[in-house]
Amino acid sequence: MPRIVTVMWCAVLVTVLAGCQPGPADPGTSGGPGTRSAPAAGWAAVRVDIGRYDLNLDCRGSGSPTIVFENGLGDNLGTWFQTGVSGAFPSSRTCAYDRVNTGTSDRVPARHTGTDSVRDLHDLLRAAAVPGPYVLIGHSFGGLLAAMYAGTHPAEVAGLVLIDPTLPSQAELYDLIPEGERAAARAGDERNAENVNFADTLERATPLVARIPAVPVCVLAATRLGDLPPSWPAADILAARRKALQDFVAHFPRGRLRYVESGHYIQTEQPEIVIGEIQRMLGTVR
Q1: Number of domain units in the chain
Q2: CATH number for the domain harbouring residue 86
Q3: Is the peptide bond before 133 cis (omega within 30 degrees of 0)?
Q4: Tens digit of pLDDT for each residue in 29-70?
Q5: Is residue 10 part of a domain?
Q6: Is 30 among the domain residues?
Q7: What CA–CA distance (Å, rounded) separates 213 from 243?
Q8: Is 32 inside a domain boundary?
Q9: Considering the domain boundaries, does residue 17 fall inside one?
Q10: Coil, strand, or helix at residue 78?
Q11: 66-124: pLDDT as tens digits
Q12: By residue range, what is the domain housing residue 242?
C-alpha cells in the first residue's frame, strides 16, 4: 500500500496519489520538519504574538475586503507567494501566514484540532490589527479551515474560494476502503506534520457548515488524480468525492463548483484560474 501522507484530498482520503507532492517551499524556511529560519530578504513577514505562541504573518497592500490565504496541511505561506497568486491583487490587502508547526511559526508538541487553528487565525488577525471583512482562500485542509472560520465568525467573512478542499464529509470515504486497510489509512491521516487531530477536526467541522453565512462560495476541484491502490474501488471513491463536492456546494445559495484540469495544487499548476476566481469574488463582494 502506498505511503500515506496527510494532504487530505491530495488523495481521496489523504492516501498519496500521483501528482500529489508537497507545495512550494517557503523561502523563509529551511524546509525541514521542526526547523525554522528568518524570512528571506524582501519578504514582509513578521512574527506575531497571539498569547499562546508566535505565528508568522505576511500582509501586503491595502484595500477592502482583505484576502486571507489558508495553506494546505503541512504547507506554508510560500504556497501563495511563489505561484504569484498572492501578489495579483493590488487593490486589496492580502495576508498569508504559517499555522503552528509550519513555516517559521512556533512548534507546539501538543495535539490540536481545526477548531484551535480557527481560534489562532482569529487571534492573529486581531493581534495584527488586520481589518475585515475577509475573503478567505483555502487550499486542501486550509479549505476546510476557511469553511470552519466562516461558520465560527460569520459576520467577518465576505466570501470563500476553496481550492480542492478537504470536506467535512471526507470521513465517510473511509468506509469505501477495504476493511483490512481501513485502520492503516485512518492512522496515516492522524500522523501529520502539524500534529492535528484529523478525525476530531472533521467531526467539529460538520455543524459549522450550516452556520456559514449566505456569502458567495466558489469551490475549485481538481480533475487530474493519480492511481489509488489497486485493491481500492477507485470508481466508487471518485464518484463519492464528486457527489460530496456537489452536496457541499448545494448548501450555499451563492455556491459554485468548477472543475479544473489540474492536480491537487491548482494554485501551482493553474494559477491564472485561481487568480481569476479570486478577482471574480472580489468583484462580487465589493
Answers
A1: 1
A2: 3.40.50.1820
A3: yes
A4: 333 333 333 343 345 789 999 999 999 999 999 999 999 999
A5: no
A6: no
A7: 22
A8: no
A9: no
A10: helix
A11: 999 999 999 999 999 989 999 999 999 999 999 999 999 999 999 999 999 999 999 99
A12: 65-285
